[in-house]
Design goal:
Layout: H1 26-41, E1 46-48, E2 58-61, E3 74-84, E4 88-95, E5 98-108, E6 110-116, E7 122-128, H2 129-142, H3 153-172
Antiparallel strand pairs: 1-2, 2-3, 3-6, 4-5, 6-7
Amino acid sequence: MPIRPILIHPDPRLKTVCAPVSDITDELRRLADDMLATMYDAPGIGLAAPQVGITQRLIVVDAIKDPQAEPRPITMFNPEIVAASDERSTYEEGCLSLPEQYAEVERPTEVTVKWIDPDGTERQQDFDALWATVIQHEIDHLDGVLFIDYLKPLKRQMITRKMQKLKRERARA
């Protein structure tokens, strides 16, 4: 499974609303496998298709952070939050498309998510705590929303400037 390059903000593909997946093909299953390999390699706990330049509604997540624990990867085509708790939690979020940038973001503590798995089966499950946060963060990517979009303008601009500088440095290397 090849490791795919991860787009760095600012990139217009990261701000694109992604198209629904109409048919789960072998090519899309391979993409999902590549995305899992890329996510684990980064290392991260979630990755959305637009982060690897594909504007389709696909995310992969695995919020098991303990390296000794058994991985629990989940691949979601067309994920949709169908219910969210009124109770909210705050987590310090980061993003593979915004390396080494972190900020506290408040989101619903629990969500119910509906999606299609790689076999084409419709699934629905309740998620809470870190799992809920990661899934909401990745679904946001499918709608062209980054975690910095929840921050105050000055903080968002500061992070964007750091990312522009990082991209210039990488281009020169």
